[in-house]
Amino acid sequence: MADPTIPTTGSPATNSTAGTPGLTATAVNKGEMFTSFDVDAFEVPSPREEVWRFTPFRRLRGLHDGKATRTAEAEISVEGAGDGVAVETVGRDDSRLGDGGVPFDRIAAQAYTSFTQATVVTVGKEVDHTDPITLTVTGPGVDEVAFGHIQIRLEPFARAVVVLDQKGSGTYAENVEFVVGDQASLTVVNVHDWADDAVHVAAHHVRAGRDSVIRHFAFSFGGNLVRLSPVVHYDAPGGDVELWGLYFADAGQHLEQRLLVDHSQPHCRSNVVYKGALQGDTTGDRTREAHTVWIGDVLIRPEAEGTDTFELNRNLVLTDNARADSVPNLEIETGEIVGAGHASATGRFDDEQLFYLQARGIPEDQARRLVIRGFFREVIAKIGVPDLRERLEAAIEHELQISGA
Predict the structure, then answer these.
(1) CB 254 within 8 A of CB 226
(2) How many other CB atoms are found less than 10 A from the CB of residue 77?
(3) 201 and 336 in a common domain
(4) Where is the SUF system FeS cluster assembly SufBD core domain (predicted)?
(5) Residues 6+ away with beta carbon under 8 Å from 28
(6) Are 306 and 336 in contact (CB under 8 A)?
(7) Three-class SS string for the chain?
(8) Burial label, 261 (beta-carbon count in 10 A; 0-12, 13-18, 19+)
(9) 8 domain-assigned
(10) What number of other Cβ atoms are within 10 A of residue 240's Cβ?
(11) Is residue 259 part of a domain?
(12) For the chain, what is the domain count?
């Protein structure tokens, strides 16, 4: 039975089927997708549905159909919160929860109905917090299941950098909210550094206030299966949101990124850049395939005049037995925009680049490393935290050692 403290309806996009067990909605467009806090409002997903067709259900460990029940808790610690920053542990009855967004699939709703305590970090009005605030999430442990909820709030005119560092073992589903007030500026860096056994499914709800600036980074290296779904909503004109991502899949890993940027306000901007590399098991064992999925949806509503948006996905296949699925989608409902576009490409090494480097006396293995470093450099260079940037560069070097590049 659903928790009686959980409302059965959520955002204005929710339609009248919310709260009806076994009944889901058919959305006219991405912005009208069905949302609810109630897990019973969602049917059990199937591979026939567009939003689930790339996800290996057998590896979700029951997160999608209710078989996964909470057996332990993930550990959440917060460091670097100084003056003007409040860190709270609250229950599901806290009225602020859901301000960032409402669960839009069964796993997100399951996570909302199953967590015991939420962590809320609030940066006060006009507070300029120059040092990173780090939230470390440690999984519940091997063969254990946990659910979580985090909310990051920036009051008007506040500025902050938040690092969401996720590691450890087990099965973990969560909702993370980013509520950014008027003229506030948030940079968030999410690092998935899970152990090899971990399964992680996360919904990120991003809500941008008037003239706010949001830079969202997602880096996926570890885990057996990681599925991240950021959704961006604009509350007022002038919002400026960039989503940056980097992922490196090894043999047997499934790394999936599904994004939706919903332009519902005039004169807002979005820019999406995700880059990935893949290296599978070259023995031909299909169970050891490296698989990445990137789905980028951008919706420009009729009222969103003056929108400027672009999305880009690039994938570099390093070995055989690796597959990258990349699907950019752009839905435009008004002609009064500044610009809109998307691009996607998946391929192997550029032979001309390797030839150019080798012709100048650089051995092939070093040339391959230089090409891969250069491929990721655009994203890494955007990180303004030196220690974190060095850590990410070291993680890429570790992946290159695995591939023998």
Answers:
(1) yes
(2) 12
(3) yes
(4) 143-375
(5) none
(6) yes
(7) CCCCCCCCCCCCCCCCCCCCCCCCCCCCCHHHCCCCCCHHHCCCCCCCCHHHCCCCHHHCCCCCCCCCCCCCCCEEEEECCCCCEEEEEECCCCCCCCCCCCCCCHHHHHHHHHCCCEEEEEECCCCECCCCEEEEEECCCCCCEEEEEEEEEECCCCEEEEEEEEEECCEEEEEEEEEECCCCEEEEEEEEEECCCCEEEEEEEEEECCCCEEEEEEEECCCCEEEEEEEEEECCCCCEEEEEEEEEECCCCEEEEEEEEEECCCCCEEEEEEEEEECCCCCCCHHHCEEEEEEEEEEECCCCCCCEEEEEEEEEECCCCEEEEEEEEEEECCCCCCEEEEEEEEECCCHHHHHHHHCCCCCHHHHHHHHHHHHHHHHHCCCCCHHHHHHHHHHHHHHHHHHCC
(8) buried
(9) no
(10) 18
(11) yes
(12) 2
77 domain residue, yes or no = yes
Tokens representing 276 are 């990935």
Structural domain containing residue 137: 72-348
Residues 215 and 163 in one domain: yes
Q: Tokens standing for 336?
A: 């009064």
Helices 351-358 and 364-380, packing angle to 10 deg: 120
Q: Which residues make beta-bridge pairs with 131?
A: none
Specify whether 213 is located in the same domain as 312: yes
pLDDT tens series, the chain, 405 aa: 334 334 333 333 333 233 322 333 333 456 578 999 999 999 999 999 999 999 999 999 999 999 999 999 999 999 999 899 999 999 999 999 999 999 999 999 999 999 999 999 999 999 999 899 999 999 999 999 999 999 999 999 999 999 999 999 999 999 999 999 999 999 999 999 999 999 999 999 999 999 999 999 999 999 999 999 999 999 999 999 999 999 999 999 999 999 999 999 999 999 999 999 998 887 766 778 999 999 999 999 999 999 999 999 999 998 888 999 999 999 999 989 999 999 999 888 766 777 777 777 787 777 777 888 888 888 999 998 888 889 988 888 888 776 555
This prediction's pTM: 0.90
Quick one: how far is CA 201 from the chain centroid? 9
